[in-house]
Amino acid sequence: MAEERQKLLDEEGDISSSGPRNESRPVKPMSALCDPRRLLHRIFVLLFMCFLGFGSYFCYDNPAALQTQVIQDMKLNTSMFMQLYAWYSWPNVVLCFLGGFLLDRVFGIRLGTIIFALFVCVGQVIVAVGALLDLFWLMEIGRFVFGIGGESLAVAQNTYAVNWFNGKELNLVFGLQLSMARLGSTVNMNIMGSVYNRVADLVGSTGHTTLGVSLMIAGVTCIFSLVCALVLGYLDKRAERILNKEQGGTGEVIKLTDVKDFPFQLWLIFIICVGYYVAIFPFIGLGQVFFIEKFNFSPPEARAINSIVYIISAPASPVLGFMVDRIGKNVIWVMCAVFTTLIAHMMLAFTFWNPWIAMSLLGLSYSLLACALWPMVAFVVPEHQLGTAYGFMQSIQNLGLALISMAAGSILDNKGYLFLEVFFSACVCLALIAAVMLYFVDYLRGGDLNLSASARAKLLKCSNSDSDSQITTVPTYLHWRTEVY
């Protein structure tokens, strides 16, 4: 091992000992690929980082892709069906505070990533076995176990990114990770129906056995992500040995006593977060049958349009994030995103216009809100409270998703899709009211949430000389951490 490190260090010395790098003496391709200081090697590592969460995002929306089949084969009503999403969210009401602590203080990033990937794999297997045995309560347990690993795996993924990349590289890296996450969700939405039909042809009939086998096949993607976790652990350990560096941490500092010091603007941001996201994810979870029943779409067409939010989000989020960074005016962008989402839901509820229009608006506004909302937390709390603020924001988001998922299922069973869309519109209206209040409260208090990018840069430059200033730039990994979800 020492010989390997010395060989790499000798190569570095040959390149840099005479001053600037001699472009006429390039590093051999294999040396560049194996040296953790070289860009080529880090790109190789990035490949595994991107696929680390693929299985989790693929399997998260398995119920949405197989909504009709799950309800029929397991003999459920919609309220029971939505429990599969609620049980995913329940453990993350607490784990948002503990995930970073476990990675930093208990397991370490490498072992922690493997453990969380194992939770995802085991949870998906339990869900599949529950379907095979026609035991819905076992499927719920599986989703709970799956949820324990899913959110924390996203934290580990972003921690790896921060450890391996820095500066402006991070924006591209997180954009690529987000795109891969959306790719997993999109592929799931569009192929799981075909997987189910192919299994049904092989089995000879549909039923809970066909559903269980289909979910077990989907679990292969989780095994793939586990393999990525193992490879990443090896590569990170090797880099630590060669470069004599320590394991990186998440950088999160969680102190629940900080909650009492949160400003009013931050609580408004929390309300916007919950009111908005509960009208997105539960809707996607129930969207397939909605498009079949109201617009007479075929199941493949319904799955395709239900995935358009993720398809648009993959390329749009990095682009819109760059735009918001360059322009500023975060509160205005949040208001625009929430208002556009309200229009999209009202179109789906009260018109028979082509739903591709409304869903495309929903995809763009969803991406825009994530880029504008999450960084604002860092503008209203000091740096030492950022970990607590983001953890609390994730916690109440998951609590809202769990409760609204159950409520949405009950409303659909008793009132139908029109009332459900009105309910989602009401949630978005709550977010819009909070956004308007945030604008005026920030304006009256002389805050900087709605400053232009140039004005904020000047303010930040002045504040850098004051160590007690509460104005800071958002840690990029925290910004993307929940948006990836």
TrEMBL record:
Any one Pfam family match given in the protein's UniProt record, by short name: MFS_1
Query: Which residues are in coiled coils?
Result: none
Q: What does this protein do?
A: Lysosomal dipeptide uniporter that selectively exports lysine, arginine or histidine-containing dipeptides with a net positive charge from the lysosome lumen into the cytosol. Could play a role in a specific type of protein O-glycosylation indirectly regulating macrophages migration and tissue invasion. Also essential for liver homeostasis.
- Give the subcellular location: Lysosome membrane
- PANTHER family reported in the protein's UniProt record: MAJOR FACILITATOR SUPERFAMILY DOMAIN-CONTAINING PROTEIN 1
Per the record, membrane topology reads: Multi-pass membrane protein
Identify the keywords attached in UniProt to this record, alphabetized.
Answer: Lysosome, Membrane, Transmembrane, Transmembrane helix, Transport
One GO term in the molecular function aspect is: transmembrane transporter activity
Its gene name is MFSD1
Q: Which reaction does it catalyse?
A: L-arginyl-glycine(out) = L-arginyl-glycine(in); L-alpha-aminoacyl-L-lysine(out) = L-alpha-aminoacyl-L-lysine(in); L-alpha-aminoacyl-L-arginine(out) = L-alpha-aminoacyl-L-arginine(in); L-lysyl-L-alpha-amino acid(out) = L-lysyl-L-alpha-amino acid(in)
Q: What is the lineage of its organism?
A: Eukaryota, Metazoa, Chordata, Craniata, Vertebrata
The similarity annotation says: Belongs to the major facilitator superfamily.
The organism's place on the tree of life at top rank: Eukaryota
Question: Which residue stretches does the UniProt record annotate as biased composition, category Basic and acidic residues?
Answer: 1-10
Q: Which residues form the Major facilitator superfamily (MFS) profile domain?
A: 39-445
Question: What is the protein name given in its UniProt record?
Answer: Lysosomal dipeptide transporter MFSD1
Q: Spell out the subunit comment.
A: Homodimer. Interacts with lysosomal protein GLMP (via lumenal domain); the interaction starts while both proteins are still in the endoplasmic reticulum and is required for stabilization of MFSD1 in lysosomes but has no direct effect on its targeting to lysosomes or transporter activity.
- The UniProt transmembrane annotation reads 39-58, 84-103, 115-139, 211-235, 266-292, 304-324, 331-350, 356-380, 392-412, 418-441
